[in-house]
Amino acid sequence: MPKNLASIVCTLTHRSSVSLTRASLFKFAGLLAGVFVLASVSLVYLAHDLDRKEEVESAFYTQKAMQSLEKSLRSTVKDYAFWGDAYKHLHTEVDPDWAFVRQNIGPTVYKDFGFQGLFVVDDVNRTVYSVVKGELKTVEVAEWLGQSITPILDKARAGAETETPTTVFINVNGVPAVVAAAAITPGTDPTVVPDDRQPSVLIFVDVLNSTKLALIGNDFGVDRLQIASAGEAGSASLLPLGDGGVAGTVHWKSSKPGLRLLGIGLPLIGIAALLVCLMVWTILRRTTAGAQALDASYASLQSSQNALATSEARFRDVVEASSDWVWEIDAGWRLTFLSERFEVVTGLSREAWVGATIDDLLCTELGTLSQWLSIPNRRPDISVQCRYVDPQGRERITRLSARAMTGGGFRGTATDVTEEVEARQRIEFLSQHDALTGLPNRTRLREFLDGKLNALPTLEQPLIMLSLDLDRFKPVNDLLGHAAGDAVLNAVSSRLADCVRDGDLVARIGGDEFVLILTDISSQDEVETLCRRLIDSIERPIAIDEQEVFVSVSIGISMAPTDALEAAELLRYADIALYEAKSAGRNTWRFYAGDMNARIIERRRLESDLRFGIKHGELRLHFQPRYRIADGQMVGAEALVRWQHPERGLIPPDTFIPIAEESGLIIALSNWVISTACRCAAQWPENLFVSINLSSTEFKRGNLVERIQKALHDTRIDPARVELEITESVMLEDAAGAMEVMRTLKRLGVRIAMDDFGTGYSSLSYLRTFPFDGLKIDRSFLNRLGESEDDNAIILAIVGLGRALSLTVTAEGIETAEHLQLLKAVSCDEGQGYFLSRPLEVEAFDALLERLGHTGSTSNA
Ligand code: C2E
Ligand code: CA
Ligand code: CA
């Protein structure tokens, strides 16, 4: 380049004779002209290329931004729609209290994600739930969007089977918006029975107003991303959204680095060319004059040399003005040139690096840089991403473009892209991690799992999946607020992470649901040890403000290859095992077993049979008389429900009450029990009361008091003749709520007894603080009577305690005369049991009352 030209000039002057000089000068001028033209052309080409690349790149990132937006919307709608609870509360029935008031799918969708619209459309395409900008509304989704969305609904429902949500760009009042829709399905929740209606659809609408677009653009490094106006129609920086741009077009500002380069470079070349022309003209005139040909031309050439030096300096300025640095290597990969910017950008010394091989300076992801440069037919417009270590020891990333030089070797530019790459990695991280706990989310879990399963786990090196669900987490959220709930989740997350090894994965996949993937464990014993450790660690109290919060965890375990080799199946099996662990009393773990699935299907069948049975009068109520022990007088009876199943015969309550509790059928069932019991008892002699069992789940639904009140009113029974039996689980789950409900119940005039006393561990304190009228000693104590002195002593103590607290003590499960004798000896108030009377059908019970009335006797025992 310029250096070589200068040496030509020198050679010329040494061989000087007028004619020779002149001829050479013409050649030289031609050459110079050629050089300038070439320089200008390459500058224009370079600038054009730079702009084009920038354009392509920004278009690429804009498109990426839109795709990522759609993807994140899809995964969000998916998380909400393929969820058993959503199915129960937004499809089976629409429960705005659950969805909006308790913020399961409500205002947070706007607050956290900025989705302006949230809708649920039912099976006949009516909008049944609308939240607009975080506020509950009654507006049809089509009306709000100003267009029909039937095709979107169809597509969302078509994806129900494969749990695939759909997204589409549309235009809402001139503003583009993304609509994400997914059919609501039970997900992997084995407790939900899908009905035959076509699924409801959950819809999120993300309106891309200018602020939002600008934010999205920022994340992807696209400058001033906005809705395109009519004036920008011809611009290149446009991206139509939706099919054929129906949703509108977005526009961004391209930085046009080439244009800037031209702005500086072309005038400089122009000036240099002008100078050289002037110089040549002067030389020519002088040679024609012929006088001091040699000297003059020598002198002119001297000045032209100066001009060249100037122009060289200007070229250098141009190169140095750009933020990139320029490099050159010889055929042996050694650096022969590094521009000054090299030092500024990299902080490395030019002196130290010129002469070293380029492979020592830079490395690529795929191999050495020399390997990349040697790729045959490598396209010169493709750049490569390289890494180097700066003087502070930090890894930096640079994008390198290279062109082969004719004489061998390469030259090119290098752009620092460290920040850009880091920003992109951050976005990637955010899309794969849970914002609250920083743990991997469902997306990351799926990726990790697929990767591990592709490596085909073996029996010796299995893949273990633990599905975890916190017990008693909901009350924390409800009573202490969401901030406390978040703190608990964070504490749990870090405890879980502490329990596993480095290569394992802990993911949070839902409110209080976590999944652990372990690959370093081979025996069942080790898994159980780990489960023990996890449970112990979670059980430790969590300090929140001045309080200590206790949660526990249930764990379901599935393994590959033993149970399955598919991610979705493993997840489902782990969930089934989790469900078993919860049924087994929580705070424990279960391995998946083939028959669990069958058991769950069996349970579901029972559940749907029960739903039918309650409606069609298959329930029966038996009454078991209760007697005063001192004189054998009958004082009342406990109502015990049974189910007359058309195929299976009479089913005891222990089999179907838990199913009713889990499916929510307990309310309908209990309503029937309460009203039937009150109606029957209203016909009994006035001195007999009826005792009704309540389930702890009923306490949590708000309307227990109203239901009891209604039954009392409808049957006109004296409330003093009604006793409600509750177990201590009621107080364990939500003591404050239980206290409130019990006080209100007492105001109605009914009595309350604690059932199954002695089976829990904290009953004593509850007895003292809650408004109980009586307690029933669990029948397991009587069963063991005589076996151990301890149990005798316990019964004695309980009776004493009852007396101290003025409670009526009832012993359950009196099976022998000895039992009765013993209870009499300790002055237990009341008793019931097979020895006195089994639970009786209504007719038999009425007959018993009849006999009592006639004979005046009080006991049939
Ligand atoms: P529970 O409240 O402890 O009811 C007493 C159970 O002990 C009854 O079983 C009764 O038949 C049985 N039993 C009575 N005397 C004796 C005896 O001398 N020896 C023995 N071994 N057992 C005796 P059942 O009817 O099968 O009820 C089981 C449980 O189901 C009840 O336990 C109660 O927790 C629940 N349950 C029954 N009916 C209802 C109801 O209407 N609503 C709710 N929520 N739960 C109910
Ligand atoms: Ca009972
Ligand atoms: Ca009992």
UniProtKB/TrEMBL annotation:
The keyword Iron does not apply. Residues 311-355 form the PAS domain. It comes from the Bacteria. It holds the Pfam family CHASE4. InterPro entries: Biofilm_reg_signaling, CHASE4, EAL_dom, EAL_sf, GGDEF_dom, Nucleotide_cyclase, PAS, PAS-like_dom_sf. Keywords: Membrane, Transmembrane, Transmembrane helix. Residues 603-853 form the EAL domain. CDD domains: EAL, GGDEF, PAS. Gene3D superfamilies: 3.30.70.270, EAL domain (3.20.20.450), PAS domain (3.30.450.20). The chain crosses the membrane at residues 28-47, 261-284. SUPFAM superfamilies: EAL domain-like, Nucleotide cyclase, PYP-like sensor domain (PAS domain). The keyword Transferase does not apply. Residues 461-594 form the GGDEF domain. PANTHER family: DIGUANYLATE CYCLASE DGCP, MEMBRANE PROTEIN. This is EAL domain-containing protein.
